[in-house]
Amino acid sequence: MNDLLSVFLRHFFELNINWLLFVHFALVTYFIGVIISVRRPVGVAFAWIFIVMTFPVFGISLYVLIGERPVGRRLTRKITRMNREYMRITEKMRQDYAGDRQGMPAEGRALSLLAEANNGSPVIAGNKLELFTNSLEILQHFIDEINQAKKSLHLEFYIWALGGDADRVGEALIAAAKRGVACRVLLDSLGSKDWFKSKWPARFRNAGIQVTEALPIQVGRFQFRRADLRLHRKIFVVDGSIVWTGSMNMVDPRTFKQDSGVGEWVDAMVRVQGPVASQFELTFSFDWSVDNPSVTHFNDRNPPAAPYEGAALAQELASGPVYRDDILYQVMLSAIIDAREELTITTPYFGPDDGLLQALMASARRGVKVTLIVPKLNDSTLVAWSSKSFYTDLMGSGVKIAEFDGGLLHTKSLLVDKRMAIFGSVNFDQRSLRLNFEISLIVYNEAFCAKLEQLIESYLSQSDFIDPLVWAKRPRWNHYLENAAHLASPLL
After folding, report:
1. Has 412 been annotated as catalytic?
2. Which residues of 238-265 are buried (b: 16+ CB within 10 A; e: fewer)?
3. What mean pLDDT is predicted for residues 183-200?
4. Collapsing DSSP states into helix, strand and coil, what is residue 365?
5. For tag attachment on the chain, is the N or C end more exposed, with fewer CB atoms within 10 Å?
6. How many Å apart are CA 484 and CA 454, to the nearest integer?
7. Which residue did the predictor score with more confidence, 440 or 221?
8. Of 410, 429, 451, 486, which residue is the catalytic one?
9. What is the model's pLDDT at position 427?
């Protein structure tokens, strides 16, 4: 009897093991086929194949969560429908301002045309730009703008953090709504999750402020919508004629992420008065219409503000999955290639793909002074190690790398030849360039670029340049950690 039981159990386990091996083989083969069926950068495809083959259960689960770029069928249909209505407005805008680029240098005209491709916004003259570099002063300016607003206040941020002067902004907004100013607040569901769990949403709505949660994470719908596609924009529009944009979320640096061990976050914002503000208002209106379930048609906005005589040429650049795919990447790549004398990048998260890496190295080798400024300490350990994996190749081609030691440098900027700047929410990584909904201001103005250069010099004064000889002598285990993290860089 015992022998029969042993034989039965042995055959049972062998049959189940064979069955499990077959299921494992079939699932891995299927998902490798799915990965190959979508045309994507080779590094990304191989990274996913490696993860799925090496860690099948974890890898397949991760791929289902974040492997594709869908925002959900319903949201995709709504974006497509809204985009047709949005297109009529942007097409007229491109016609109205077609002459503004005529006085630009050839490389500026080319970049502006690329940035407006695929239903983008055109370059517009007559904008007054002010650069602000102190976060607490910026928050106070927000409060002053809110107190002086007459008609409307539109705020769109990735993070609204609790505490400090960010709460004072909320109080000012409630007071503005009570005196009749139309207030709308659009916040990312994940980035502002603590805010949405707090008393503030109810207080805002009770005061008459409209609040919308962008890209809410819905359990059970991960197979239809990626949970990590986020609304990463920073837009604050006052009365349709003034806009603030840049790298700063609605946070007080004295209270935000103080337990992360990186110091206070260091940000910068630009205040824009002039007709280009209407482009940001248009993007806010588009995002609001898409993310607010009660809106069925795209809402138009007020006419553009009058231009300032002799003021700056500027252009909004909005990007995101589903629409305007890869335009942002192409703009960044083109700006790097167009540099002739000097190129400076500030970014908290550095994770280029091979195309951007080669463009940076080629620019340095043809004599362009290329400088990369990143924080010495980063709130993401994996990103920090992955970023360092690029240092040897970059420095070998002549790129200067400076590590900022005055906190977590969060400013995102690209300065080209002191004549053109890209400034906004975009990190120099694959998440910003290909996944998130991002916003940037492209400025073709030497006066603004001079102010940005002064800001960059202040960052460099608090930074240490990496010595290639010293870097080459770092412990061997650092190499392994950096290269291991680099394997995940296409997915970060």
Report:
1. yes
2. bbbbbbbbbbbbbbbbeebbeeeebbbb
3. 97
4. helix
5. N
6. 37
7. 440
8. 410
9. 96
Residues paired with 441 in a beta bridge: 316, 423
Query: pLDDT tens digits for 156-172?
Result: 999 999 999 999 999 99
For 286-321, the pLDDT digits (tens) are: 899 888 877 777 665 666 777 777 789 999 999 987
Q: Can you tell me whether residue 61 is helix, strand or coil?
A: helix
SS3 call for 461: coil
Could you give the angle at the alpha carbon of 400 between the alpha carbons of 399 and 404, nearest 5°?
Answer: 140
User: Pick the catalytic residue: 287, 417, 429, 486?
Assistant: 417
Check if 388 is active-site. no
pLDDT attached to residue 335: 97
User: Per the residue annotation, which of 376, 388, 412, 486 is the catalytic one?
Assistant: 412
**What span, in angstroms and rounded, lies between the C-alpha atoms of 217 and 198?**
17
DSSP-H helix ranges across 217-326: 277-291
| Percent of the chain clearing pLDDT 70 (strictly above) | 85
Q: Is 234 one of the annotated active-site residues of the chain? A: yes
Pairwise CA distance, residues 370 & 187, whole Å: 35
Work out the mean pLDDT of the chain and round it to a whole number.
87
CA–CA separation, 424 vs 332, rounded Å? 13
Please report which confidence band the pLDDT of residue 224 belongs to, taking 50, 70 and 90 as the band edges: very low
Sign of CA dihedral 53, 65, 286, 134: negative
Active site residue 267: no
- Rounded to whole angstroms, the Cα distance separating 112 from 110 reads 5
417 is catalytic: yes
Out of 223-227, 258-262, 271-275, 322-326, pick the least confident.
223-227
232 an active-site residue? yes
Scan for tokens 């495809």, then name that residue.
45
- Given a cut of 70, whether residue 220 has pLDDT beyond it is no
β 269-273/428-429 pair status = unpaired
| 124 neighbors 307 (Cβ within 8 angstroms) | yes
108-112, 243-247, 408-412, 481-485: range with lowest mean pLDDT: 481-485
User: So what's the pLDDT on residue 295?
Assistant: 79
Catalytic residue among 165, 239, 287, 429: 239
Name the E strands within 98-209. 124-132, 152-157, 182-188
What count of Cα atoms within 13 Å lies in the side-chain half-sphere of residue 397?
21
Residue showing tokens 């059970």: 220
Q: Residue with structure tokens 């061997």?
A: 476
Sign, Cα dihedral of 386, 388, 393, 399 = positive
Angle of CA points 57, 59, 65, to nearest 5°: 105
**Residue 297, C-beta contacts closer than 8 angstroms, at least 6 positions apart:** 82, 85, 289
